[in-house]
Amino acid sequence: MIDPAAFVRWFRGALPYIHAHRGRTFVIHFGGEAVADEPRFASLVHDIALLHGLGIRLVLVPGIRPQIETRLQRRGIACRYHRGQRITDATALECVKEAAGQVRVEIEARLSLGVADSPMAGMRLPVISGNFITAKPLGVIDGIDFQYTGEVRRVDAAGIQALLAQERLVLIPPLGYSPTGEVFNLRAETVATAVATALKADKFLILMERPCYLDEEPVAQLTSSEARTHLNQARFPAPVAPHVEAAVTAAEGGVERVHLLDRHLDGALLLELFTRDGAGTLISRQPFESLRPARLDDIPGILELIAPLEREGVLVKRSREKLEMDLADYCVIERDGLVIGCAALHAFPEVKMGELACLALHPDYRGENRGRRLLEHIEAQAHRQGLERLFVLTTRTLHWFRERGFRPAAFTDLPVQRQRCYNAQRNSKVLIKCL
């Protein structure tokens, strides 16, 4: 039984993402293992259909490795690899073609399902596949001739974009074609990365066989430069590292955001795309969460953030006009467009003192040192302005500030200008920290 209230809250919370994603281009890569996993793959196709129904332009790049290996085993042929890349002779190429055709047909059949008792009832998903990838032979490496194993030479981005504009779902198998008419076996993730980069996709989503861990700990987000550093230090598990490498390559190539997801998590795509904290690992050129000076368009977010604390009497009530006047004093923590933290530094340069004011955090994002980050940011600002002491007036968070170096002080220790506007009814405690 679905909890109606929880469903309504989630649906309302998803609305900003529904608006933000409409008309955007997403490239989704999943391995052949996902296609072979019958019950989970049906759910994945339903989620892909939902994304398409919400107006998202989709390019799918499936892998076919297990399907190739099954065919080779049936023929009694050993799988040959060098440096993690398949060596594709003429016989293996036939297996590659068969596997690509099978996977393409299976995906198209799934996306064509529209019976009344399925989640895709009444939908029509036109799927287009084609020769969008021009390839060249990988050649000879370490004396090994890779024969019909190739690498991406060019992506027909204009052709793909034209189909996406017609609301077609584009399916790209890991095959490439040469101007001389040859067919090459390509690594699916490399194809997906090249396609996402060529399209300057808004999102590149990689469904993996396991979640992304860093030193055996889950990681929610990394910048591409951070991820590159961790790759160089070999801190990702071996099965995860190639996916991170693909993500970094795509981010460095102009893809805004790359998402690494565990395909075994039911609804991973939906959780990642329509909830604020997602369900996987985000890799982007710019930080997903940033601490920066407040802007005029942050004022509604700040007001919404501090309103509950004002009602509880934790913060002094501030009007929009007052915020606008003092906006240069404020900094915010922004997470994916949401203001989740703020603080202000009001300077009294004549006595070399500053007031730390309006320190607030969204209740869902407390306990992860964001308050400390805001405090350190304000302290650094005060130091740059030549202030020697920082004071705070608080009614409820005395111990938090004491633990961070503030000491009790008297009302008369405040700047005279601040004493004049002190609200005696609040009876706020005065704390001062020497910088």
UniProtKB/TrEMBL annotation:
Residues 289-428 form the N-acetyltransferase domain. This is Amino-acid acetyltransferase. The gene is argA. It is found in: Cytoplasm. Pathway: Amino-acid biosynthesis; L-arginine biosynthesis; N(2)-acetyl-L-ornithine from L-glutamate: step 1/4. GO terms for biological process: L-arginine biosynthetic process. Its EC number is 2.3.1.1. Its main location: cytoplasm. NCBIfam families: N-Ac-Glu-synth (TIGR01890), PRK05279.1 (NF003641). One of its GO terms (cellular component) is cytoplasm. Belongs to the acetyltransferase family. ArgA subfamily. In bacteria which possess the bifunctional enzyme ornithine acetyltransferase/N-acetylglutamate synthase (ArgJ), ArgA fulfills an anaplerotic role. It holds the Pfam family AA_kinase. It catalyses: L-glutamate + acetyl-CoA = N-acetyl-L-glutamate + CoA + H(+). GO terms for molecular function: L-glutamate N-acetyltransferase activity. SUPFAM superfamilies: Acyl-CoA N-acyltransferases (Nat), Carbamate kinase-like. InterPro entries: AceGlu_kinase-like_sf, Acyl_CoA_acyltransferase, Asp/Glu/Uridylate_kinase, GNAT_dom, NAGS_kin, NH2A_AcTrfase. Keywords: Acyltransferase, Amino-acid biosynthesis, Arginine biosynthesis, Cytoplasm, Transferase.
